[in-house]
Amino acid sequence: MKAALVGADGTLLHEERRATGRERGPEAVVESILGFAADLRAYGEEHFGEPAVAAGVAVPGIVDAERGIAVYAANLGWRDLPLSDLLGERLGSIPVALGHDVRTGGLAEGRGGAGRGTDRFLFVALGTGIAGAIGIDGVVEPGAHGSAGEIGHVVVRPDGPECGCGQRGCLETLASAAAVSRAWAAACGDPAQDAADCARAVEAGDPAALRVWADAVDALAAGLIIAITLLDPRTLIVGGGLAEAGETLFTPLRAAVEERVTFQTLPHIVPAALGDSAGCLGAGLLAWDLLATEVSV
């Protein structure tokens, strides 16, 4: 878990991290979140002379941002959790905004990171899964039902691996950091190897690693060209663990996307700028946005 105090101008004032400890069960994780937020609020009051005036929280899974409910998170065991209300009660009845983790990170990248000053961008996070955030004039589009940007479940290989969503050949089964880790561990025969190890082997010229990497990049480019065709972004921001490979990823990825472009306008494809602080900064922005909305009303 990452938490931060964020100023009205988006400045990161203080940041802390704690273990999620999901093995303790969903109720214990919720209590850890509430306690973490309360401790952070107390820190702000002690060191900055006043408590936080609003809070934002970003979580994975399906999110009902309007009602402040974490609808479902497979990895955390949540269903219909009224997280905004619970946090508001713990923090002295301050306004609390709830957001999806990747869309919230995309919001931060769009306003203060790699998409700053860009009117239309797509942020794609390559982690355990793959998800995206559609940015329009500094705001991230949630979709009619709060699930816009789930590019990880675009089917790019109909005969590909089975996905947890029930489809086959979803993008995240082939090009996520987890997918690359699985493929490389199988290729090299060492189950302890992961995507970062594969990237290093690619840089060293290992033929097996080059094949695994090329397969993942090919699938990723196929998914991205679908997104480019539908959304026509000016900038395509790629973040998450796999993007930490730098040009080992971006050089072949840019080439693979460009090869697929016919009538589409090729966007700028750039790495995310804020790293794993994006979620904290984005949650802070959600809080300030919520406060501004309540004040204006």
Nutshell version of this structure?
The protein has about 300 residues and is α/β, with parallel strands linked by helices.
What labels would you give this structure?
297 residues; alpha/beta; 9 helices
Describe the secondary-structure layout:
Blueprint: E1 2-6, E2 12-17, H1 26-48, E3 55-59, E4 62-64, E5 69-73, E6 78-81, H2 83-90, E7 96-100, H3 101-112, E8 120-126, E9 130-136, E10 139-141, H4 172-175, H5 177-188, H6 195-203, H7 207-231, E11 235-239, H8 247-260, E12 268-271, H9 278-296
Parallel strand pairs: 3-7, 8-11, 11-12
Antiparallel strand pairs: 1-2, 4-5, 5-6, 8-9, 9-10
Helix pairs in contact: 1-2, 3-9, 5-6, 5-7, 6-7, 7-8
pLDDT averaged over residues: 93
Proportion of helical residues? 40-55%
Strand content: 15-25%
Overall 3D form = globular
End-to-end Cα distance? 33 Å
Which class of secondary structure composition applies to the elements? alpha/beta
Contiguous runs where pLDDT drops below 50 for at least 5 residues: none
Count of β-strands: 12
- What about the largest sheet? 5 strands, mixed
Task: Give a structural overview.
The chain is of the alpha/beta class. Helix content is 42%, strand content 20%. The protein is built from 9 helices and 12 strands. It has helices spanning 26-48, 83-90, 101-112, 172-175, 177-188, 195-203, 207-231, 247-260, 278-296, and strands at residues 2-6, 12-17, 55-59, 62-64, 69-73, 78-81, 96-100, 120-126, 130-136, 139-141, 235-239, 268-271. A 5-stranded mixed sheet has the order 10-9-8-11-12, with helices on one face. Strands 4-5-6 form a 3-stranded antiparallel sheet, covered by helices on one side. The chain has a two-stranded antiparallel sheet with strand order 1-2. Helix 1 (26-48) crosses helix 2 (83-90), helix 3 packs across helix 9 and helix 5 packs across helix 6 (195-203). It is globular.
